[in-house]
Amino acid sequence: MYRFLLTRQWVILTLVALVLIPTMIRLGIWQMHRHDERAARNQLVTDALRAKPVPPERLTSPGHTVTGDERYHAVTAQGRFDTEHEVVVRRRTNADDEVGYHVLTPFVLHDGTVLLVNRGWIPADGPSQTAFPKIPPPERGETTVTGRLMPDETTAASGIKDLKGLPDRQIMLINSKQEAHRLGTRVLGGYIAQTAPDPRGDTPELVGKPGKEDAALNLAYAYQWWLFAAAVPVGWVVLLRRELRERRRREEDGPDTGAAPAEAVSTL
Fold it and tell me: Hey, is 91 helix, strand or coil?
């Protein structure tokens, strides 16, 4: 009765099922790993945003590479803005996906060390992309600034090409080592995205909070792959029972003088 399992169609069907089951199980496990990684990164972001602001010197120093654990941690510093050496970062978008600039202003601490401050976004509404845009000034004199610590930008991490030969006081990437060379002074590693004080007239537009990765989507995909893996043997058994019923029916009906009926598997 089960000799038909050795036919070409059933051998192929069984082999495909045997390959699909472990493959789908492994895909589900991979999605679970992705979920755990994203959930861990989301937790790091949450912890950093909730942490109390600390002086930047506690987290970074000249030449320091900001780590994933330090990223987004709130820092607060006292000093003065150096608008004379202010630059703009090209091809940056705001919350409405409008293209403009980020304003990068050196913030000189009491010991002369510089903290780079991304003061936010301004529109590219100048007469040309070569002209330096008009930038609303920051607070004058001694002031306190608070922001989220960010790592230096690189082409590898951001996908932004570090173009050369740009107009004066325009850059593509925020990189403390490059700014230290340009300014000829000690610059703390990384930079901060300003969160306080609020700019006058809401411009520059402060950079928004970092978004979280959708870890729940990976969890859903994992369960989906495992359901598919469970469905494969169930489907194989359903086809087997259908084939058996068809063969029993043909035996009960006796030999058919007409065209031979096609096997159930051939209709899949």
Answer: strand
Residue entry with tokens 């080592």: 177
Burial of 14 (0-12, 13-18, 19+ CB in 10 A): middle
CA distance 136 to 11: 74
**pTM metric for this prediction:** 0.72
Residue-wise pLDDT for 252-263, tens only, equals 776 655 444 445
Tell me which residue of 77, 9, 5, 60 sits closest to 177, measured CA to CA. 60
Residue 143, helix vs strand vs coil: strand
Q: What is the pLDDT of residues 149-203, one digit of tens each?
A: 999 999 998 899 999 899 999 999 999 999 999 999 999 999 999 999 999 888 9
- Those residues whose C-beta lies under 8 Å from the C-beta of residue 91, and which sit 6 or more positions away, are 99, 160, 172
